[in-house]
């Protein structure tokens, strides 16, 4: 098991380097001079040259890349052009806000998604099942910003239960968490339901029934564990979509997290910051995938033993 | 007779496009205490359906539409869910055909066996564990204590089936239903498993309902045999009588299709044709279109269950019990 | 499920197969997938509306009229007007053009890229397979919205660039599915037989493997459209996608956001339009999967 996890970590290192490389090339090569992209067209050439030199952009690409990587390993993602601060520092300041949002959202989506999925599976094909699964599909199909705006309108403006935006108080985290968790809850619910229904057809469920277990016990001690294996993996994978979704959620609710940083970086054309946030986020996603894979091999005895 | 299970005129139907298709159409089975009763037939004849009816585990859209299943004086077809669950695994238990898929892959086998006994005998976990290890020893699982913590995929097919037998026998049930318990196993292991089942049941006085399509298994361990065809019992008798005085053409077909060593045979006998579709059953005898001895009456009327002797039932127009004649038409005539 | 029920189900199945004509088959499929069929009709209607937007709409989506600013829904303007006095309904209908093109074209491009790479990886295996699959791993590791944002940053906003961004971002999952199908198909007897007879690789791929991937691809395509539409609207919402005054649903939502509390219909109309299209494609995709493709069902 440990060997397997180590193997996965080893595999993700080249992926990590590839990610950095692609972002790096994208931001520098296409389609023109990165400094011009940053400053706009109407800046004179001497300024451009000067800044190029300052940021090391005049050197050959591969040297830039290795310099960047070697700095990045030591936790240095360069200096923000607009804020004149270390990118790592800026990211680490924003990171706790994103984490808090993502954790709350994950908890919301797991609880709601799994509960709804189980509930729908138990009530298979009756009106409650249809209702829940309709809701789940709606959850998957709604754009994040629409959910955000509707909830803001209802709960912040009409009912005045929660604040419209902000991030300091617990109450202000409620709406963003629901918004961010909404899509994931939908897909988790759908997956939970279909997995349970599939597992309930298995022979060992028949064995469990033949043993004299009642439906509830069959579900609890035999169906859920099998059905949840893939769901757990999916929950870890949801980190990726949560981080993407967080970009929008943070912008709507004014939460100064990583996603807000990325959009700010684009608006102010701050390349080092954009580069830093995207790479940082991607590392998180790769890490999440790693956890997902490892979780699966820890939870499933069949895989656990093969290694 | 001291019957532990009595099935009378049991009918199980599936609703397909608004009409009922009968998977079981009025079957009668008696299982005496401490005996092994074989249920034989081709796949799709209703053997497993009979077992699932007794267990009360028929899946929708199937349902019992008539008849009775009497188990030690309790009417199973009218029993409530909780009451039924108390009988399952305790008084009636079941072994399935596929030991590979019948055990939960992510739960330790010991725990799976333990579940039944904790549920039914309300004993502590430590005690239950002790009992599981005992039964593992009894069913011949080596290193029982170590195996308690194994997962199913770590065991061979034979061992898994032993686990299943242990699980079924741990509460010393009155009736054990074995649904083709050796079909998925090697021939060498088959004999061991059959002997094990027979021994355990003799020790605890358990009756066995042995579902199989293998006449060899029947000959080896069964006391009584029921031959099923297309949702009906076509012939039933004590094993010896069934083999020696075979009455139904279908039974004799089954027997003839067993290869015999040493006997010169040009070609192994096969019964022509296929099992009829239960949605589209013939008007007369269900076996008529595959039978070598079909008469006009076979195509127009359904044969009744006739007892040609007190213990030998056959459902065929070739046989009529004639009280004043000493014997009926013997199968030897056309076999 | 026990043996007997399986048996009976099989016999029901064969009966259905033999008794019914093609027409009845279609009727049956529609009957069992009412929702998918209904969605198909909705999608066709929306596509027609988008194509004939000029004919359907009374107003021009770009003509501003300051005296008609922020009108409430009325007979003349069923969904009211926006802050520049443009008719909301007209803009929603014209927005369908943007969303549908975004949904269809980049998805198609990324599917083609993904299919080609997947076929190559699965069929030839070895180093090529390894290289392509690691590249796919890398692409899948990016949060797709962020990657698209980076592309938009370097190339600037605008519809053409969204096309490019989304085409580049989404090929990886297609290539994975196609690769695994190709792998299992190339182990089939008829492919092995063709190989042993010396049939060329290209012929095997295009005659034996690709046609068998088509059902999966159709389903995947249908189910990828909504995510492309959602991505476009998100990008536009964040201001890095379509640029004003384009009538894009995402853009409409962001510009109407200020009026959320005073005139919610302005925000809701484009948002609901997105939702309807996305739902319709999801339903259609689910239905198609049930009809065509048992393989994806298992995933």
TrEMBL record, chain A:
CDD domains the UniProt entry points to: TM_PBP2
Transmembrane segments: 9-30, 99-122, 134-155, 161-183, 227-248, 278-299
Mode of membrane association: Multi-pass membrane protein
GO biological process: transmembrane transport
A Pfam family assignment: BPD_transp_1
Residue intervals of the ABC transmembrane type-1 domain: 95-292
Compartments where located: Cell membrane
Keyword terms of this UniProt record: Cell membrane, Membrane, Transmembrane, Transmembrane helix, Transport
Alphabetized Gene3D superfamilies for the sequence: MetI-like (1.10.3720.10)
GO cellular component terms listed in the entry, alphabetical order: plasma membrane
InterPro entries from the UniProt entry: BPD_transp_1_N, MetI-like, MetI-like_sf
Family according to the record: Belongs to the binding-protein-dependent transport system permease family.
PANTHER family for this protein: DIPEPTIDE TRANSPORT SYSTEM PERMEASE PROTEIN DPPB-RELATED (PTHR43163)
Name listed for the protein in its UniProt record: ABC transporter permease
UniProtKB/TrEMBL annotation, chain B:
SUPFAM superfamilies: P-loop containing nucleoside triphosphate hydrolases
PROSITE patterns: ABC_TRANSPORTER_2
InterPro entries: AAA+_ATPase, ABC_Ni/Peptide_Import, ABC_transporter-like_ATP-bd, Oligopep_ABC_C, P-loop_NTPase
Membrane topology field: Peripheral membrane protein
Pfam families cross-referenced by the UniProt entry: ABC_tran (PF00005), oligo_HPY (PF08352)
Alphabetical list of Gene3D superfamilies matching this protein: P-loop containing nucleotide triphosphate hydrolases (3.40.50.300)
GO MF term (any one): ATP binding
Cellular compartment(s): Cell membrane
ABC transporter domain segment(s): 7-255
CDD domains in alphabetical order: ABC_NikE_OppD_transporters
Protein family (similarity comment): Belongs to the ABC transporter superfamily.
Protein name as it appears in the record: ABC transporter ATP-binding protein
Source organism of the structure: Lachnoanaerobaculum orale
UniProtKB/TrEMBL annotation, chain C:
Cellular compartments annotated: Cell membrane
Superkingdom field: Bacteria
Domain ABC transmembrane type-1: 96-285
Biological-process GO terms, alphabetical: transmembrane transport
Gene3D superfamilies xrefs: MetI-like (1.10.3720.10)
Entry's transmembrane regions: 35-56, 98-123, 260-284
Matches recorded under PANTHER family: D,D-DIPEPTIDE TRANSPORT SYSTEM PERMEASE PROTEIN DDPC-RELATED, OLIGOPEPTIDE TRANSPORT SYSTEM PERMEASE PROTEIN APPC
Family to which the UniProt record says this protein belongs: Belongs to the binding-protein-dependent transport system permease family.
Protein name, UniProt field: ABC transporter permease
């Amino acid at each position: 098991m440990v060997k397997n996890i180590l193997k996965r970590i080893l595999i993700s290192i080249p992926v990590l380097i590839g990610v950095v490389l692609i972002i790096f090339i994208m931001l520098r090569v296409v389609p023109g001079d990165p400094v011009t992209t940053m400053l706009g067209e109407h800046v004179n050439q001497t300024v451009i040259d000067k800044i190029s030199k300052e940021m090391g952009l005049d050197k050959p690409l591969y040297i830039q890349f290795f310099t960047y990587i070697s700095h990045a390993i030591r936790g240095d993602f360069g200096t923000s052009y607009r804020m004149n601060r270390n990118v790592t520092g800026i990211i680490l300041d924003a990171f706790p806000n994103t984490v808090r949002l993502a954790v709350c959202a994950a908890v919301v989506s797991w609880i709601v998604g799994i509960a709804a999925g189980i509930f729908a599976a138990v009530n298979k094909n009756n009106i409650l099942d249809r209702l829940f699964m309709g809701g789940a599909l709606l959850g998957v199909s709604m754009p994040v910003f629409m959910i955000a705006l509707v909830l803001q309108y209802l709960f912040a403006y009409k009912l005045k239960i929660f604040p419209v935006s902000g991030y300091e108080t617990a109450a202000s985290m409620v709406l963003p968490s629901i918004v961010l968790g909404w899509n994931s809850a939908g897909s988790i619910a759908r997956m939970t339901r279909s997995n349970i229904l599939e597992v309930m057809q298995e022979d060992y469920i028949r064995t469990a029934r033949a043993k004299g277990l009642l439906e509830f016990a069959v579900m609890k001690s035999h169906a859920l564990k099998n059905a949840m294996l893939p769901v757990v993996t999916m929950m870890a994978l949801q980190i990726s979509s949560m981080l993407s979704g967080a970009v929008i959620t943070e912008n709507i609710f004014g939460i100064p997290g990583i996603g807000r940083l990325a959009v700010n970086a684009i608006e102010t054309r701050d390349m080092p910051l954009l580069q830093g946030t995207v790479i940082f986020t991607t590392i998180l996603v790769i890490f999440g995938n790693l956890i997902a894979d490892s979780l699966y091999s820890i939870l499933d005895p069949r895989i656990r033993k093969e290694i | 007779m001291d019957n532990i299970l009595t099935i009378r005129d049991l009918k199980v139907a599936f609703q397909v496009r608004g009409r009922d298709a009968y998977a079981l159409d009025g079957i009668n089975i008696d299982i005496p205490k401490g005996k092994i009763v074989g249920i034989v037939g081709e796949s799709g004849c209703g053997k497993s359906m009979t077992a699932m009816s007794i267990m009360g585990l028929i899946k929708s859209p199937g349902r019992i539409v008539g008849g009775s299943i009497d188990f030690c004086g309790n009417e199973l077809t009218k029993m409530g869910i909780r009451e039924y669950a108390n009988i399952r695994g305790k008084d009636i238990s079941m072994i399935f055909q596929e030991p590979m898929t019948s055990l939960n892959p992510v739960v330790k086998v010991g725990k799976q066996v333990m579940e039944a006994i904790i549920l039914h005998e309300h004993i502590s976990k430590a005690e239950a564990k002790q009992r599981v290890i005992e039964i593992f020893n009894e069913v011949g699982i080596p290193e029982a204590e170590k195996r308690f913590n194994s997962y199913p995929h770590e065991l061979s097919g034979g061992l898994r089936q032993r686990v299943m037998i242990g699980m079924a026998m741990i509460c010393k049930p009155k009736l054990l239903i074995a649904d083709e318990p050796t079909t998925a196993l090697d021939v060498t292991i088959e004999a061991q498993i059959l002997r094990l089942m027979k021994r355990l049941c003799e020790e605890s006085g358990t009756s066995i309902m042995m579902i199989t399509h293998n006449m060899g298994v029947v000959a080896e361990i069964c006391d009584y045999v029921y031959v099923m065809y297309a949702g009906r019992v076509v012939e039933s008798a004590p094993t010896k009588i069934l083999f020696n005085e075979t009455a139904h053409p279908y039974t004799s077909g089954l027997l003839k299709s067993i290869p015999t060593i040493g006997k010169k045979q040009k070609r192994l006998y096969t019964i022509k044709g296929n099992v009829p579709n239960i949605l589209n059953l013939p008007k007369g005898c269900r076996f008529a279109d595959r039978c070598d001895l079909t008469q006009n009456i076979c195509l127009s009327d359904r044969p009744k269950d006739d007892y040609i002797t007190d213990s030998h039932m056959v459902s065929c127009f070739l046989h009529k019990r004639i009280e004043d004649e000493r014997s009926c038409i013997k199968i030897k005539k056309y076999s | 499920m026990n043996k007997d029920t399986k048996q009976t189900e099989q016999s029901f199945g064969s009966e259905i197969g033999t008794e019914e004509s093609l027409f009845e088959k279609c009727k049956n499929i529609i009957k069992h997938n009412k929702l998918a069929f209904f969605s198909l009709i909705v999608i066709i209607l929306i596509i027609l509306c988008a194509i004939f937007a000029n004919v359907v709409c009374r107003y021009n989506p770009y003509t501003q009229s300051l005296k008609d600013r922020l009108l409430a829904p009325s007979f003349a303007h069923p969904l009211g007007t926006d802050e520049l006095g443009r008719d909301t309904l007209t803009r929603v209908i014209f927005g369908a053009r943007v969303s549908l093109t975004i949904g269809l074209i980049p998805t198609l491009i990324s599917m083609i890229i993904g299919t080609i790479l997947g076929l190559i990886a699965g069929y030839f295996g070895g180093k090529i397979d390894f290289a392509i699959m690691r590249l796919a791993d890398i692409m899948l590791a990016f949060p797709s919205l962020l990657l698209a944002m980076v592309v938009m940053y370097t190339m600037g906003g605008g519809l053409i660039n969204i096309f490019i961004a989304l085409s580049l971002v989404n090929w990886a999952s297609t290539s994975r599915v196609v690769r695994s199908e190709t792998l299992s198909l190339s182990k089939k007897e008829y492919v092995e037989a063709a190989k042993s007879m010396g049939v060329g690789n290209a012929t095997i791929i295009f005659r034996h493997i690709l046609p068998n991937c088509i059902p999966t691809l159709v389903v995947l395509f249908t189910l990828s459209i909504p995510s492309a539409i959602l991505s476009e609207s998100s990008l536009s919402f964040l201001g890095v996608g379509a640029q004003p005054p384009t009538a894009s649903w995402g853009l409409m939502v962001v510009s109407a956001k200020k009026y959320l509390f005073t005139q919610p219909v302005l925000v809701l109309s484009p948002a609901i339009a997105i939702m309807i299209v996305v739902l319709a494609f999801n339903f259609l995709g689910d239905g198609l999967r049930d009809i065509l493709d048992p393989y994806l069902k298992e995933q």
